[in-house]
């Protein structure tokens, strides 16, 4: 049997926690804090594979093993690796309080509506995009992915970071609220337990039935009437439906909406969980996008400027939607295709722009496909009869980068 003991929020485990064990595995501070049985072997955790190999030798001989861990070892912890190697039936897990639960408790907030994302040993960009998209996020940090790096990536967002360090240590515990800029300017050392990222401008949600982030929207490809727009200059819902299917926006992604206009695509991507940057060169369009984002309760970062030049200062996206079809379209598509990790989708009314846009996608290594969308909507006529009203045809072109492997988000 392998007994896995979580020691709370960094506090020392009970002195007799290893009683009867013939092998005790854990971090150095956990091992130093307990009395080891006479003759027991001690392994300080470093690389996990050698420790698992030694545990297997003891388990094969039915010799008792104790593994010490921080917090709840079943929450982004060692239980996963142990269960995969030895089977859940061989584990006796005794969880402590996780650092996430403790951090929210310290600031008096519930966390059943929070998203938890780990940046420990993982790419920071996923955590950053989740923080941009959701109002309440807990980030498990690691080397190169701590408060300073998170703050630097969130400088232009309206977020508060709560940095919780040495949770459970009566002498060293410290919980502090800072702006992203303040977080980016400091050296936080190695004692950080978790960082909470909060958008305090969004009202708290209602009482929850299901924990975690809100469920996805009940519908998408919303009617044009749901958005403020100028002279019907908006991506029609039929086009938006297919564009969203090809973009595949989800939690942890960053999507660009270039030439955003009313921001309808940007808002829909944000409703589906992605972090979104909308690029618009018209000043009145910038305000219109912001108003539409507020109306739908999502956070869209709007950049005022003309593509492709303005794109240089943005983080690399997972997917890009390009609307409009001016003379600069080939240069815009080329700039987007060079940096998109997964997909680029382009909506064009002028079919003579298609060859150059397609060449830009294939030249960047994308698999390319497209379709001409033509639809007719039901429209009432006098006398209680209905006719079909044709919408303007739009060519939708999309490129997909081969063998894209997006990183998942744990919630």
Can you walk through the features of this model?
The chain is an alpha/beta fold and 411 residues long. It has three domains: 2-97, 3-Layer(aba) Sandwich (Cobalt-precorrin-4 Transmethylase, domain 1), CATH 3.40.1010; 100-198, Tetrapyrrole methylase, C-terminal domain (Methyltransferase, Cobalt-precorrin-4 Transmethylase, Domain 2), CATH 3.30.950.10; 224-400, Rossmann fold, CATH 3.40.50.150. Helices cover 27% and strands 25% of the residues. The strands form four sheets. Strands 13-12-11-14-15-19-16 form a seven-stranded mixed sheet, with helices on both faces. A five-stranded parallel sheet has the order 3-2-4-1-5. Strands 6-7-10-8-9 form a five-stranded mixed sheet, with helices on both faces. The two termini are 29 Å apart.
């Amino acid at each position: 049997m392998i007994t896995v003991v979580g020691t709370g929020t960094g506090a020392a485990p009970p002195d007799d926690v290893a009683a009867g064990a013939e092998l005790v595995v854990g971090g150095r501070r956990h091992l130093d804090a307990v009395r080891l049985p006479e003759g027991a072997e001690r392994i300080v955790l470093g690389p996990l594979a050698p420790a698992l190999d030694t545990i297997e030798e003891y388990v094969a001989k039915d010799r008792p093993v104790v593994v010490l861990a921080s917090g709840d070892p079943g929450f982004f912890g060692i239980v996963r690796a142990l269960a995969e190697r030895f089977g859940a039936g061989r584990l006796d897990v005794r969880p402590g309080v996780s650092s996430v639960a403790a951090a929210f408790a310290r600031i008096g907030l519930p966390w059943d509506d929070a998203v938890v994302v780990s940046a420990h040993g993982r790419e920071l960009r996923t955590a950053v995009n989740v923080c941009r998209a959701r109002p309440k996020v807990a980030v498990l940090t690691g080397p190169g992915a701590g408060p300073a790096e998170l703050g630097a990536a969130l400088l232009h967002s309206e977020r508060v970071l709560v940095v919780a360090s040495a949770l459970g240590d009566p002498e060293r515990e410290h919980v502090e609220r800072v702006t992203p800029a303040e977080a980016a300017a400091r050296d936080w050392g190695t004692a950080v337990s978790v960082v909470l990222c909060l958008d305090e401008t969004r009202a708290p949600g209602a009482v929850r039935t299901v924990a975690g982030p809100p469920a996805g929207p009940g519908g998408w490809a919303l009617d044009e009437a749901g958005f403020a727009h100028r002279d019907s200059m908006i991506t029609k819902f039929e086009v938006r439906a297919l564009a969203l299917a090809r973009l595949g926006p989800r939690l942890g992604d960053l999507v660009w909406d270039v030439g955003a206009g009313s921001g309808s695509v940007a808002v829909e991507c944000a409703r589906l969980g992605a972090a979104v940057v909308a690029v618009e060169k018209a000043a009145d369009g910038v305000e219109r996008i912001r108003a539409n984002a507020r109306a739908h309760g999502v956070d869209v970062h709007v950049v005022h400027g003309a593509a492709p030049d303005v794109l240089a200062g943005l983080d690399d996206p997972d997917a890009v939607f390009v609307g409009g079809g001016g003379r600069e379209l080939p240069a815009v598509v080329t700039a987007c295709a060079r940096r998109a990790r997964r997909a680029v989708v382009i909506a064009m009314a002028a079919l003579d722009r298609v060859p150059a846009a397609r060449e830009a996608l294939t030249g960047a290594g994308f698999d390319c496909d497209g379709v001409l969308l033509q639809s007719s909507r039901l429209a009432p006529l006098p006398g209680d009869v209905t006719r079909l009203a044709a919408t303007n045809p739009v060519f939708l072109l999309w490129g997909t980068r081969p063998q894209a492997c997006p990183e998942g988000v744990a919630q």
